[in-house]
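STRUCTURE:
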């Protein structure tokens, strides 16, 4: 069994890094207004089409010492960093949820957040279509996830299927209320902040992303996500050493961390409040 588990995790890493390579290309084309469906991958410096050898995730960059084979131009390490992070993201999803519906949902959510972050890093914009994709993913998968959770938690209880309609309704309602609470709170805070500092703090895309986090994580999880994203944002701002940093990548990372590993922390602080 350990071999099988290791094998699955290795496959997950390579699948993730291959997707990461595709995401780099996708984000680049969104920022530069090129279609993802047309034309082959090309070197960002000289425009030479890339061959198979140049397209192996992670390895190509190390094999070619971070340079383009055709123009010898330096290829930014950020591409390989993105591939490694994407591989790691897939691995964490599988580690957390095994091979379940939840894993499929987590991986898809990760993919949307990942491309959105790459685009935000480059253009300081979060395209609405990614927010919409994340909302649609939530709405479509919620009944399946609730069913899967109900089945595993209490397969012996007979009234699970009976009350299932009510359970789904409650899930939609709770998620929507949490989304509005988290997104609304961040909107108010950012408006106050903008007034006080006279600068724009959060963009519209950031607020929408917090709304989406509330849907998936609930109000308590959403609050944790806000705190973690501020923490990551501070580190990120320190590392980047620039005045203005896009906040989307920090929110996305916090969203994913809370989604995968937030439950014990949320239970702990709710117990402190006596809930
Ligand atoms: Zn080149």
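SEQUENCE:
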């Amino acid at each position: 069994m350990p071999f099988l588990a290791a094998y699955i995790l290795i496959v997950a890493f390579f699948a993730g890094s291959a997707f990461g390579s595709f995401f780099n290309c996708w984000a680049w084309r969104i920022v530069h207004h090129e279609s993802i469906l047309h034309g082959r991958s090309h070197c960002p410096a000289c425009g030479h089409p890339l061959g198979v050898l140049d397209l192996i995730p992670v390895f190509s960059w190390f094999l070619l010492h971070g340079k383009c084979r055709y123009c010898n131009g330096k290829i930014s390490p950020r591409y390989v960093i993105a591939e490694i992070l994407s591989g790691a993201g897939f691995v964490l999803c599988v580690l957390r949820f095994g091979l379940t519906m939840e894993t499929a949902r987590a991986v898809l959510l990760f993919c949307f957040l990942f491309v959105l972050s790459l685009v935000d890093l480059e253009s300081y914009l979060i395209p609405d279509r990614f927010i919409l994709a994340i909302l649609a993913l939530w709405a479509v998968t919620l009944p399946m996830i609730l069913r899967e959770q109900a089945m595993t938690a209490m397969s012996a209880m007979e009234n699970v299927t009976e009350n299932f309609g009510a359970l789904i309704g409650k899930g939609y309602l709770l998620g929507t209320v949490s989304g509005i609470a988290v997104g609304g709170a961040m909107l108010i805070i950012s408006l106050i902040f903008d007034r006080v500092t006279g600068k724009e703090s959060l963009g519209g895309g950031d607020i929408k992303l917090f709304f989406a986090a509330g849907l998936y994580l609930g109000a308590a999880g959403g609050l944790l996500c806000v705190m973690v994203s501020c923490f990551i944002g501070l580190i990120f701002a320190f590392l980047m050493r620039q005045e203005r940093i896009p906040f989307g990548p920090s929110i996305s990372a916090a969203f994913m961390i809370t989604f995968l590993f937030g439950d014990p922390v949320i239970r702990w602080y709710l117990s402190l409040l006596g809930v």
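REMARK: Residues 204-240 form the longest helix (37 residues).
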